[in-house]
Specification:
This protein has 134 residues and is α+β, with helices and mostly antiparallel strands. 62% of the residues lie in helices and 19% in strands.
Length: 134
């Protein structure tokens, strides 16, 4: 019985008291403040400003990711990581191209033609059915 009690006491010492003593001797590291970088040190010149966006001059680095503030015609956005920023810039360039296409006559003409095609197809289907039955 005494040996079980000693084993239990030893187990309690190992599990609860020893880690508590080790933790009290350690000084915790204070949080490292984020680093502020300039956007031209991280990005190439053509990526800093586009027709429908601007990257804020300050880039915040938390030690792992860069956080960018992206100003667009659609509002401001925070983007975490350079890869995500490149993706957002590509998407904004695609939106600009689609908006330019939408304003052109080609878009309007193709929209009208797209609406007419199913109607013409239905008319041809009815005609060919009537001709087949006659």
């Amino acid at each position: 019985m005494k040996s079980r009690f000693r084993i239990l006491v030893a187990f309690m010492l190992l599990v609860f008291i020893v880690p508590a003593l080790q933790a009290s001797g350690k000084e915790e590291n204070p949080a490292v403040p984020p680093i502020t970088l300039k956007n031209d040190t991280v990005l190439s010149g053509e990526r800093l400003k586009g027709a429908n966006y601007t990257v804020a001059p300050d880039v915040i680095n938390d030690g792992l990711f860069n956080t960018y503030h992206l100003y667009t015609a659609y509002g401001g956005f925070y983007v975490e990581s350079t890869a995500a920023l490149m993706e957002r810039i590509n998407e904004l360039n695609a939106l600009r191209a689609m908006e330019a296409l939408e304003q052109s006559g080609v878009f309007k003409d193709s929209l009208v033609a797209g609406v007419k095609l199913p109607v013409q197809g239905a008319v041809e289907l009815v005609k060919s059915t009537v001709e087949t039955l006659s």
